[in-house]
């Protein structure tokens, strides 16, 4: 019965991803925690789940040439080492997962709130970035590579700690830095960075911390992979923006709860 329940949960999240485009990490990790899985197992398992489910999207965007590989490189130059160091520190500083649960919980809360905010104000963020001519906007334009690298460092740490942020939050960073980049390229670049980041972070959780439940991972994938395809086909018939708003409000509420834990 538990296996069927986890497959159904994977299908539900996969359907939501297909319908709204909202990343699996921000939905799956809170759901697994609500099911009673420890925070560390939910986060570690979800990271590998995200890497596998997004890999197909990365291949598709690469074939369509909708990936800015130079930007992916600068993001990864910051995020991959930061992810490895973060997992290594958790392994060496703490002797048991219960000792760093508070760090994971608050990191998850902060990233859920940030992700929900980005989803709610997505359009305004891009419009304001395109029109902005202030000193900060000029600094970003003059030092884009440095800012992208620093953003990668931030994502490497907090995606490893929370499994959230490699999708919607990273896309928001790209929108601010590249307001004139076509939306399809932002998505392709975002996904192409998310796959190696979540894979390395997930492997770090598995190898260094033992925080991955492979039976759970298999059940989630069995349910979600076909459901994503179904959701994608239904997306044109359902008001995705309304669903995004509802999901964002739920994520915001859960984020506040976890951050205040």
Describe the structure.
This protein is mostly helical and 261 residues long. It has one domain (2-259). 83% of the residues lie in helices and 0% in strands. The protein has helices spanning 2-20, 24-34, 39-64, 69-93, 101-120, 122-131, 135-142, 144-162, 168-177, 183-209, 214-234, 240-259. Helix 6 (122-131) packs parallel to helix 9. It starts with a helix and ends with a helix.
Secondary-structure topology with pairs:
Blueprint: H1 2-20, H2 24-34, H3 39-64, H4 69-93, H5 101-120, H6 122-131, H7 135-142, H8 144-162, H9 168-177, H10 183-209, H11 214-234, H12 240-259
Helix pairs in contact: 1-2, 1-11, 2-3, 3-10, 3-11, 4-8, 4-10, 5-8, 5-12, 6-9, 8-9, 9-10
In DSSP terms (H or I, runs of 4 or more residues), the helix count works out at 12
Overall mean pLDDT: 86
Rg, Cα atoms, Å:
17 Å
Number of domains: 1
Structural class, from helix and strand content? Answer: mainly alpha
Portion of residues in beta strands equals: under 5%
Q: Which descriptors apply to this entry?
A:
261 residues; mainly alpha; 12 helices; globular
Summarize the model shown.
By secondary structure, the chain is mostly helical.
């Amino acid at each position: 019965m538990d296996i069927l329940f986890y497959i159904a949960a994977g299908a539900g999240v996969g359907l939501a991803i297909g319908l709204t485009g909202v990343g699996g990490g921000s939905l799956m990790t809170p759901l697994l925690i609500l099911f009673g899985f420890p925070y560390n197992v939910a986060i570690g398992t979800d990271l590998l789940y995200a890497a596998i489910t997004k890999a197909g999207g990365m291949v598709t965007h690469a074939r369509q040439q909708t990936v800015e590989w130079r930007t992916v490189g600068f993001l990864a130059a910051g995020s991959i080492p930061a992810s490895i160091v973060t997992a290594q520190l958790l392994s060496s500083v703490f002797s048991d997962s219960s000792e760093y649960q508070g760090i994971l919980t608050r990191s998850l809360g902060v990233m859920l709130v940030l992700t929900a905010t980005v989803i709610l104000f997505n359009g305004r963020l891009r419009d304001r970035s395109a029109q902005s001519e202030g000193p900060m906007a000029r600094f970003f334009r003059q030092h884009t590579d440095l800012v992208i690298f620093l953003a990668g460092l931030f994502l490497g740490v907090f995606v490893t700690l929370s499994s959230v942020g490699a999708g919607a939050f990273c896309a928001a960073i790209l929108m601010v830095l590249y307001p004139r980049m076509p939306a399809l390229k932002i998505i392709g670049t975002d996904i192409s960075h998310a796959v190696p980041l979540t894979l390395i972070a997930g492997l770090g959780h598995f190898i260094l911390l033992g925080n991955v439940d492979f039976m759970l991972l298999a059940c989630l994938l069995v349910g979600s992979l076909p459901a994503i395809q179904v959701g994608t086909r239904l997306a044109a018939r359902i008001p995705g923006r309304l669903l995004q708003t509802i999901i964002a409000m739920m994520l915001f509420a859960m984020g506040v709860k976890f951050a205040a834990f």
